[in-house]
Amino acid sequence: MTDTHLLHELIAHSAARAPEATALTYGESSLTYRGLAEQVAAFASGLIGLGLQRGERVAIYLEKRLETVVASFGAAAVGGVFVPLNPLLKPEQVGYILRDCNVRVLVTSAERLALLQETLPACPDLRHIVTLDATTSLPGTSLRWSELLAAPPAPGHRVIDTDVAGILYTSGSTGKPKGVVLSHRNMVAGAKSVAGYLENHAGDTLLAALPLSFDAGFSQLTTAFHVGARVALLNYLLPRDVLKAIEREKVTGLTAVPPLYIQLTQLSWPASITDHLRYFANTGGRMPRQTLAALRRHLPRSKPFLMYGLTEAFRSTYLPPDQVDRRPDSIGKAIPNAEILVLREDGTPCAANEPGELVHRGALVGLGYWNDPEKTAERYKALPVTAPGRETGLVLPEIAVFSGDTVRMDEDGFLYFIGRRDEMMKTSGYRVSPTEVEEILYATRMVGECVAFGVDDERLGQAIQVIATPPANGQLDIPGLLAECRLRMPAYMVPAGIEQRPGPLPRNPNGKIDRKTLTTEWVTGKAGAQEI
Question: Can you give the pTM of this predicted structure?
Answer without folding.
Answer: 0.85
